Amino acid sequence: MAQTEKKGGLLRKSSASKKPLKEKVVLMYDEVFTTEDPSKSNPRFWEELFLMKVNLEYLEGKLEALDGEELMKIKDNINCLFQHCIQALGEEHPIRVVNALQTLCALIRGVHQKNKSTSGFDIINMLVGFDKAELCMKNLMESLDSLLCAEGSESLKSLCLKLLLCLVTVTDNISQNTILEYVMINSIFEAILQILSSPLSRREHGYDAVVLLALLVNYRKYESVNPYIVKLSIVDDEATLNGMGLVIAQALSEYNRQYKDKEEEHQSGFFSALTNMVGSMFIADADEKISVQTNEAILLALYEAVHLNRNFITVLAQSHPEMGLMTTPTSPVPTTPVTPLGTTPPSSDVISSAELPLDADVQTSNLLITFLKYSSIVMQDTKDEHRLHSGKLCLIILTCIAEDQYANAFLHDDNMNFRVNLHRMPMRHRKKAADKNLPCRPLVCAVLDLMVEFIVTHMMKEFPMDLYVRCIQIVHKLLCYQKKCRVRLHYTWRELWSALINLLKFLMSNETVLLAKHNIFTLALMVVNLFNMFITYGDTFLPTPSSYDELYYEIIRMHQNFDNLYSMVLRISTNAGQWKEPASKVTHALVNIRAIINHFNPKIESYAAVNHISQLSEDQVLEVVRSNYDTLTLKLQDGLDQYERYSEQHKEAAFFKELVRSISINVRKNLAFNTLSQELLLKEFSTIS
Questions:
Q1: Which helix (H) or strand (E) holds 653?
Q2: d(C-alpha 338, C-alpha 294), whole Å
Q3: Nearest CA among 219, 187, 192 for reference residue 206
Q4: Helices (H), 290-361
Q5: Number of Cα atoms under 13 Å in the Cβ half of residue 621
């Protein structure tokens, strides 16, 4: 018997001796694409259409094949199809509802594709007609809201979210998507919250719900009052906020796990052996080998939650009971690869066993630890555009956290100690840290470690100035809290001081190259003022008097770098030019550091001469420092513990606009290829009751 093949809506005998036969649904689509009303010849046309399995490919292809003028001729039928889809959403038979949702996806995408051409017709008019738009869209949003909140089918809920994601992302710039005005007026915010607060719904649909919310919050956020921003900022329900935190933590954990798997696979392979053999020649290539595509969509959701909702800050440090001590997921983890910025959700709130080594004690796992670990991975390589955006967004999130009083309280809490295993970039001059020897410390230590790691590893030709500025600002904000609240943090401050001095050394060594692109004096001033902060207020927040002595020791030991910096800024500030003013600010900021160097260096030289010692030990230098504090005179510098608070609208609007565009494009691509397969959806509704 001849095999039957199906392609593009055609049924064709393999012998190819006869003319191809079209599926019935394709014939019905063809009737819609005429100027005649299809229900005239068949009164049951619309009823029958939604019993047929949707052929998305054919329907979208048909829409794309028409030019704007041809499409306008069949506008009445398109309006009619759109309206009947909305009516079908209220049907009892789930198959009709599934088919109506699928058809709506195809219609919205197809008509939006046509809008990219020069025809310029209005999308809303094309889909529903101006006269009926308000009522139709109200009915559509109410139906979707009912389906999302109902006790019924999970497949229907999933498809509703896919339709909404399709609706939101059909244009690259979501703020130009006028159809979203109806999503603003007829809010589905409460339905999204309901999904996040219910463990079952969250497991199935949490990821799509969180991404959808993040995108809706960004619709015309600077131009008008966005109800989703207003509502998200006042959510105080613990179950809902924890649910959102769980979804974000799971997605970031999945990324961390994939990276760890690739890293282990890479380290045990041939490439690792080759790298060991020839030193660091191939380190950059090796990093590329183990890169995992970043997920800016989930990171945007975390940012919006942290930035807009102060109650969400509490979620960051909470252990996740559902992640608990279980070591296996409650349902199978998808085997398909995670697409960039995609909408494929992790299938469970339970962290997989591969993620458990995050800490020696599983119970200490929380969203902030997972986020810090994620940040340590994506911030390693900022050459890739997605990673650069991810790295910048990670630092913006940390900036918001560092400014929050409550966040600082738990970051610095001595009773909340964690072992956080951050990823460190492979470098020639240091060994890989042993994960098992990590101490348990307050979370702020991990944040500072992350900042130090970034400072040390990104001194390169393509200097990421913006990220460095953010990094130094985060350290400064944490120090301001410690000074204000007199928190004496037991941290290895020497590592930070050393990193900062090396950064100054790098800026001086590459003055000509860097000045062609950046104002390096802004960054130099910030670094010098961090030292001024330690010098002026260090006795209020450094853990011991000996820590303060060590600060002076480091400044004296590395005095050549500060001397060179002073010479450089003095040279530039005495010449007329664009850098005169910023350079002179650094000159003034160096006054106390130079006073320390000029005060102690002669004393140390004198001590060495009297005791006939050619090279003093650290203890001997410290002894000189301690015995000569009383004759040191320092100037009081104002404003060291002040900072400008983060403001998105004034400084970051362009970044977020570009980021949301990138996310919209990628979510749309993912929807187009992975999520609208009907076979899985229809398994649930194999019979019509």
A1: helix 653-674
A2: 9
A3: 192
A4: 296-308, 313-316
A5: 18
Neighbour tally for 130: CB within 10 Å: 9
Q: pLDDT value at position 232?
A: 97
Does residue 218 sit in helix, strand or coil? Answer: coil
Cβ neighbours of 460 (radius 10 Å): 11
Quick check: 469 and 527 in contact, CB under 8 A? no
| Amino acid at site 333 | V
**CA gap 82, 129 in Å, rounded:** 10
- Tokens for 325? 């001590």
Say if residue 405 is exposed, middle or buried (CB neighbours under 10 Å; 0-12, 13-18, 19+): exposed
Residues in the chain: 689
| pLDDT for residue 383 | 82
Residue 437: Cβ within 10 Å count: 7
Which parts of 223-341 fold into alpha helices (H)? 227-234, 238-267, 270-277, 283-289, 296-308, 313-316
Q: Is the dihedral of CA 446, 448, 450, 452 positive or negative?
A: negative
Phi and psi at 22, nearest 5°, equal: -90, 145
Instruction: Report the pLDDT value the prediction gives residue 18, as an integer from 0 to 100.
Output: 56
| Contact indicator for 442, 490 with CB cutoff of 8 Å | no
Are the C-beta atoms of residues 296 and 389 closer than 8 Å to each other? yes
Residue indicated by tokens 């480091």: 554
SS3 state at 10: strand
Instruction: Tell me 355's DSSP state.
Output: G
φ and ψ at 335, to 5 degrees?
-90, -10
73-99 core/surface letters (b: 16 or more CB in 10 A; e: else): ebeebbbbbbbbbbebbeeeebbbbbb
Provide the pLDDT for residue 325. Answer: 34
Residue that is written with structure tokens 């941290």 in the block: 491
Q: What is the side-by-side order of every strand in the sheet holding 21-22?
A: 4-7, 10-13, 21-22
Q: Which DSSP category does 279 fall into? A: T
Helices first, then strands: H and E counts in the chain: 35, 5
Number of C-beta neighbours around residue 131 at 10 A: 10
The DSSP call for residue 221 is T
**The tokens 């979210």 sit on which residue?**
161
Tell me how far apart the alpha carbons of residues 605 and 215 are, in angstroms, rounded to a whole number: 64
Structure tokens at 520: 């390096």
Q: What is the pLDDT of residue 280?
A: 40
Quick one: which of 323, 369, 325, 320 has its CA closest to 350? 323
How does pLDDT run across 559-594, given as a tens digit for each residue? 999 999 999 999 999 988 889 999 999 999 999 999
Q: What is the mean pLDDT of each run of 10 residues along the chain (689 residues)?
A: 49 52 84 86 86 86 82 89 92 88 90 61 82 92 94 87 93 90 95 95 94 97 94 96 96 92 74 48 42 86 97 87 36 34 41 39 74 94 84 97 96 92 76 66 96 95 94 98 96 97 96 93 97 96 95 96 96 89 96 96 92 89 93 92 92 94 91 56 57
Q: What is the pLDDT of residue 684?
A: 67
For residues 144 and 208, the answer to whether their CB atoms sit within 8 Å is no
Cα gap 169→166, rounded to integer Å: 5
Per the listing, tokens 């320390």 go with: 596
Q: What is the pLDDT of residue 164?
A: 96
**Contact in structure between 68 and 114 (CB atoms under 8 Å):** yes
